[in-house]
Amino acid sequence: MDYLITHGPTIVPVEIKAGKRGSLKSLHIFLYEKQLQHGVRLNMDRPSIGNFKTIVRMKNVKDKLSYTLISLPLYLAGQLDRILDDII
83 by DSSP, 3-state: which? Predict the structure, then answer.
């Protein structure tokens, strides 16, 4: 996870990836620990939004996580607050 932003009273974790793919392990752990439902990934791919389920593995924890991932190309980073208004 690279950044935390606030959107109103909500904290939103942001992961930045140089390419189109990459692991989101730290994002998953943060979402799980803070019981958040939305995360953002900025990368070189097309915009998308999806609901995902994954398994979070930490030292003494193996649990399920359901969350919404907002994936945006890097050039839309300046529009993030406006986009989150429509989604959250």
Answer: helix
Q: How far apart are CA 16 and CA 71, in angstroms?
A: 10
Give the β-pairing of 48-58 and 38-43: unpaired
Separation of first and last alpha carbons in the chain: 20
3-state secondary structure of 50: strand
pLDDT, averaged in runs of 10, over the chain (88 residues)? 93 89 88 96 94 91 94 95 92
pTM score: 0.90
- What span, in angstroms and rounded, lies between the C-alpha atoms of 55 and 57? 6
Q: What φ, ψ does residue 20 adopt, rounded to 5°?
A: -90, -15
Question: Taking Cα atoms as reference points, which of 68, 69, 7 lies closest to residue 41?
Answer: 69
